[in-house]
Fold these 4 entries.
Entry 1:
Amino acid sequence: MKMTKTTLAAKVNILNGLTEGTYFCLDYAYGGVRLCKKSNNHGGLTDISEHMTMREMGLVLDSIINALYHIK
């Protein structure tokens, strides 16, 4: 199954729901994507992951979501 921006956005919404007070977003560039965290109220972002393909990002997000889900 092809990983789309819509699918990745849904996974990030789930991640944001599991982490109270932390806002994660995706940064797209050069055909790839990286996971970022909002660092201030002025639009600053902190990189959480390396730049990777959308398919790889889907797997990373699934892993983070599963880990957080099983901790709670």
Note: The chain has one domain: 5-71.
Entry 2:
Amino acid sequence: MKAWIVDDPIEAVSAAVVFAETRGQAKVLAQSTDACEDMDFTDIRAIRAPELDRFYKGRPEMSWLDDDDRIAMVKYGGFYCNMEVDVYKEKCEACPAHEWCERYENEVME
């Protein structure tokens, strides 16, 4: 199964990782994610993320709430949370993926 990062290319507020064989299937799955639920099929961007293929667990979408998925998404997909780092420093440090988080490294560890 192939991993795809799906999002809104214009607003790029949030993204998800879905697993599908084709870009079209990924875009259909994206419509059931929080990141793309209100979007038209033609407006969704789906980018292959082969480095995340190995994390397929039989579920159509990776979960930010699953520690292993979060670590993989941060480490191999470049994901990060959208909270204000300077306000929530302790939460960043408690995140299971903070050691791979570029945003944490650049904004908290400065």
Note: The chain has a mean pLDDT of 91.
Entry 3:
Amino acid sequence: MKKAYLELIKNALAKGLTISVFDGEEWAVKRSTGYKEIKEAVESVEVAEIRLRNADGEKVGWAMIIDGLEPDETVADFSYNKLMHELTGSVWDGE
């Protein structure tokens, strides 16, 4: 089973979003479209936060990543919006 955060990153990049990674002390990666760079930054710490932006630079989502949990649970929390539910493959029950 693939780690959920890797699917989230791939799905976000496929939609043309940029990703910033906060490692608990600093923004280790800022507005990146590089899968490897993002993945390495997330995996360099136990808990990372990612911020997603659209092409206009607007914040469209956030997620907390905890590497070390069961693969399908590595995205521990995320913004409650339709886009983030699509990116994580979870069911959107909002309006």
Note: Residues 4-88 form one domain.
Entry 4:
Amino acid sequence: MSVTIFSLIVPIALTGLMLGPQATQRPWPASAPAVDEIIFKGFPFPRDIMRDGLEKALGRPASVSEKELNGRHSSRLQFTGLAVELFAEPIGTRGTVSSIELSDNRWRFPAKLHIGSTRAEMIKLLGSPDIDRSAEAIYGCYDCVWDDKIHFVFEGDRIKSMNWDFYVN
């Protein structure tokens, strides 16, 4: 008897799942390519750069702090107006840079927004942020598997710092 009830319930349940509302991916705004471009190409060095290559490109850092994270060695190189955190070894094809914090225009970053750009300029270029607070706006990558983000920190209506946050597995 229970086999008969089960054989009747399963097709009904499956039909309900197929006819029910399907999950949809949120539509990409027209500005999605501009967001992804800033996340992936808004800085002047490759993500898979090693520490010695970073120092060749940017010069000697003012300070370096080291730590172990999940059994992997990471370094935070602090320059005037710029901090870069990277892992000591490349991790697959994801690269080694895990975060970049830019707070000074002395560094020639190719991002189309700069320190001092206005919130209105940011929204005109990138559209509405995923998270919008008075002191911070956050955009996530549209065309990537990982949870890469860019944070814009504001002082008043102007960008005070830009922070790239890369997922490193």
Note: The longest strand covers residues 72-79.
